[in-house]
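Milestone M4 deliverable, item 7.
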Amino acid sequence: MIDPSGQRLPTAADEARFWDLVEDAWARIGPEGRRARQAVAERDPEAGEVDLGIIDELLQVFLDNLTLATQNFSAEELTDLDRVVERRLYEIDRADIQAVTDGSDDGFLYARGFIVALGRDYYAAVARNPRLAVLDAECEEMCYFFATLYHERYDRFPDTGSGISRESTNNPAGWPN
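Output delivered:
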């Protein structure tokens, strides 16, 4: 789908497919992964620091599951999914979220990758209430997951045609000053 400014946007079907893939990759881990993600998403942000030990251990399993689920995807499918990730990262490229996660430009990108990797519910919760973001939580691999798969399979990077950047501080709506 192309918007009036000429940017290529993810379709509703691409968004749904992306979040379904993420949830399925976590579901394959079992109830331990669901409980750990739920604990982060539903915690009281005023309660102090979060123990991310179990999630840190499970993130690689999640990414491996996601790789397996997409092993037969075409270049177009991987590009469509990369466009979704790029858009989700861009939408939460905001000063109010960075104030909670901290980090340099790269560190904030990886923090947003963590937010996306934990799934739709956590992503939506942080978008609504940035205080639910977690200090120093990162998932660098998620930021370029589908672009990397595309590169490994087709020896080049995809062109999403979106006209945006997933890099930090590039969303003018998120950084009004």
